[in-house]
Amino acid sequence: MAAENRDQSGGDEPVRHEDHREEYIHVTARRLDQARAALQPAIGATQTNFSRKAIEANPGADNAPLNSILLQAPGVTQDSYGQIHIRGDHNNVQFRLDGVALPEGVNVFGQALMTRFAHSMSLTTGVLPAEYGFRQAGVIDIQTRNGVADEGGTLAGYGGVRDYVQPSIQYGGHWGQWDGFITADAVHDRVGIENTTSSYNAIHDLSNQYHVLGHLRYTLRPETRFSLTAGVSNAWYQLPNNPGQQHQFATPLFRADDRPVQEDAPDSSHLDEHQQQITDFAILSWQEDHEKISAQTSAILRYSSMRYSPDWLGDLVYNGIAQQAARSVFSSGVQSDVTWRISRSHTVRGGVQAYGERAVSKSSSLVYPVDEEGAISPRTVTVHDSSGKTGALYGAYLQDEWHLTRSLVLNGGVRFDGVEEYVHAHQFSPRVSLVWTPWHGGRFHVGYARYLTPPPFETIGTTSLDRFADTSAAPANYQNDRVKAERDNYYDVGFMQQITPHWHVGLDAYWKQAKNLIDEGQFGAPVILTAYNYHRGRVRGVELTTDYSAGPLTLYGNLAVSRAMGKDINSAQWNFDVEDLQYMRSHWVHLDHDQLITASAGGAYAFFHRTVHPLQLSGTMIYGSGLRKDRELEDGSIPNGTHVPQYVTFNLGLVQTLKHMAWLGGYTMQLRLDVINLFDRRYMLRDGSGIGVGAPQYGLRRSVMGGVALSL
């Protein structure tokens, strides 16, 4: 029988050793979590934090994709295929789980990381400290849910219009020195990829996905912890059809097809193209936290693959090539970070990252032979192409957080990065930032960073151009300089002021000068992004933010003005028209993802928040002045010369929680109603023109969703 002590507050309830043990487990876990976060501070950078409360206030909450949460941060722009752009960059985004960077994969549409796996999340931009390398437009760090802070289980069902069904399950718990959390879901819908028209329902847009993510930790002693984080994502998509397209390669061969025809060719609304994407990853970490020194070392594995299945007949008609394509990349690596608290004035940090990667690309294409006079043969030929490459990324850093005075902090460091893949490059990159807190609630920061950004291994085109000579898939030109690493000078200055204990405002400005600026585009029917460079690039912008939180009320708003330009494409030129290449050789052009004005806002209010049945009403807004498209002139066009129309959308969420109800057996039930695009605005993300832009894409029309969750 357990011994008992009396509560010193005077109560009669016995306090058991199990209660002390439970408190000890929570305190130890919290201290180690804080020590891990301190390994990678955001000193001098701009950071937006999303707490669990903020995630749950977003319409859709855990059922919504991660990008819908991130779009509520300043400087984050919405694009097609669920992509986001941060401060005028195309991708160049780094994902971390509990501070450990995940190697990149080949996924285009799906997101392998689920929102419900996040206990909290942060987005760090600006002048990044030296511990961040390779991908530097933004660092998205997800603090995973665990069995101590997120104990208990939940069964949930969510769904709505367009056959949307999403069942999910999650469970967290701790057992002695072990704790763990696991979550899984499946998604079936008809909105897997953006609609190519403004209609309410897309043609041929079925999607089936499943995700499993888990986290297991073992606390050997108060100073030592081991953890394993792993995930599996498998997604299958139909590619939406764009009706009414003009075929270019019709021949008598097509009369044998039994599908609806249009002038002896399949109608573009009846094409049948698919794409499958798989991602698997695992991270094994060892963490130590002592009085003066803290450290974490992690081993990382990631595999991702993409396979495109064409409509063999239809792709030939409209593109002159029907290509079955597959890409995969396997990455393994190590990351180690150490913090040494030398004194009150100096905290030194250092670490290394190293990854080995293997990328494989295969394709099998049907094309038409073309004779010297340009006549197309009705007989097809098959072109096979495959390649593989093994490469490496590595980096090391050292920096010092120096408290010059009580109100002035200098964070200076240097980073060395190298890449040995299709490109060979290395660079020493100084980083320095100064943070000044002249009065209570006010903070200034100014900084400079040198960046080296390797081209994404999996997006470098490896097509053998000569194989397609004298065919209907012959490139516009045969110039194909190798994609290069980007080198940047980055400057950032900002100010934040706490107006009241509940109200904050912030202003931040940035400027990037780039050599060999990296961009990506879709060239051809397979939705595979291909990297290329502008010889010169420049990106600049200003962000204004504000937030207010008091009791049951939360409000926020963001406004960003940005301009991203490039000049002279100097790699992968065969993807572009000769006229466009000549124009961009002597003219600055907008990047295809450049958007002048981006704004977001939102709020939430909890009615009856002091009762066991709180009712939360929340809403979000997104405004965009429009991504780029070609500007048509009488004598030609200007690449990315204008933008698609501006748009604004509103989302609404209503959540009724019933806590510990007797008729539910003491469990908690949550009822949810979400409306996405509340006013059913028709808006265009892409019109199909522009540098590296495929088919048109439109934003999601009004979608009414509902769900129920039972917490066990």
Automatic annotation (TrEMBL):
Subcellular localization, as worded in the UniProt entry: Cell outer membrane
Keywords, ordered alphabetically: Cell outer membrane, Membrane, Receptor, Signal, TonB box, Transmembrane, Transmembrane beta strand, Transport
Disordered as annotated region, ranges: 1-21
Domain annotation TonB-dependent receptor-like beta-barrel: ranges: 284-678
Location, primary (coarse class): membrane
Record has Membrane as a keyword: yes
One family name in Pfam for this protein: TonB_dep_Rec_b-barrel
Membrane topology field: Multi-pass membrane protein
Family designation: Belongs to the TonB-dependent receptor family.
Protein name: TonB-dependent receptor
Species: Bombella mellum
